[in-house]
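Hey, quick one: can you model this chain's 3D structure?
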Amino acid sequence: MDFSFATQQIIYGLTLGCLYGLLAIGYTMVYGVLRLINFAHGDLLMVSAYVAFFGIIIFSLPWPLAFVGAAVLTAMIGILIDRGAYKPIRKSPRISALITAIGVSFFLENLALVLIGGRPKSFPTPMMFNGSLTLGQLKIPVLSLWVLAVTLVLLIVVVTIIHRTRVGMAMRALSRDIETVSLMGIDENRVISFTFALGSVLAAFGGVMWCMKYPAVEPFMGVIPGLKAFVAAVLGGIGNVTGAAIGGLILGLAEVLIVAIEPDWSGYRDAIAFCIMIVILLTRPTGIMGENLPD
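Sure thing. Here's the predicted structure for all 295 residues.
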C-alpha cells in the first residue's frame, strides 16, 4: 500500500467516522441523562433525509433552508418521541423503555414505508459539495472536507453547551441523580426534551451529509448507520460525548482500512463493527473514555 493510497483511504475513513460520530453523540447524550439506548435515533437520520429531499424537490427551497428546516423538524420529532413515547414510562423498568425504543424505530420506518414507499430516491447534492481537490496523486473530495468541518464545529458547540451553560449543567446533574435534581427545582422534563432535541439535530446533519455521500433515500437507510453509531458510542464510552466522536472516527477508519488492506473482506464490513463491540464489551465495558456511573 503506497503513501497516497493509504492517505486516500484514511480520508475516506475519517469522513465515514465523522458521520458515525454525529449519530453516536446523540446516542450517548440520551443515555447519559436517561440511561436509555434510544434505538429510534438512527431513524431520525432517515427522517431528516426525507425532509431535506422534499424541501428541495417538492417545495423548491434553497438547499441551506432545506437543510436547516430538516434539522428543526427533526429536533421537533425528537421532542415528540420523548414526550409521547418515553415520558409516560419514565419510572417503569428499563426493559420497558428498551422495548418502547425498538417499537418507535419500527413505527418510523414503516410509517415512511407506507406514506412514501420503499423505492429509493436519489438525493440532490448541491454543486458546492461535488468535486474534489487534487494534491499530487491525492484527490480529496470536497464533501469530505465539509463533513470534517461540520462535525468539528458541532462537536465544539455540543461540548460548550454541556460544560458552559446552565442547561448543560442540568444535563450533567441529571446524569448523576434525577431525583435529587428534581428536588432542587429543575424541570427534568424540559432538560430531557432539550437533550433529545440536541441529539436529533446532530442526527439531522448526519443524515443530510450521509445522503450526499450515499445519495439514496429510503425508509430503512438509518438502520445500519444507527447500529454502527451505537457501536461507536460503546467503543468511545457510552455517556461521554468526546468519547463517542472518537469512537466514530476509530470505527470509520477500521472499516475502510481493513477493506483497503484486504479487499476480500469487503463482504464482512458490517461484521467488523460488531466484532469491535464484542471485543470492547469483553475487555473494557466502559469504553475508551467511559467511566463507571451510578445505576
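One thing worth noting: The first strand starts at residue 132 and ends at 135.
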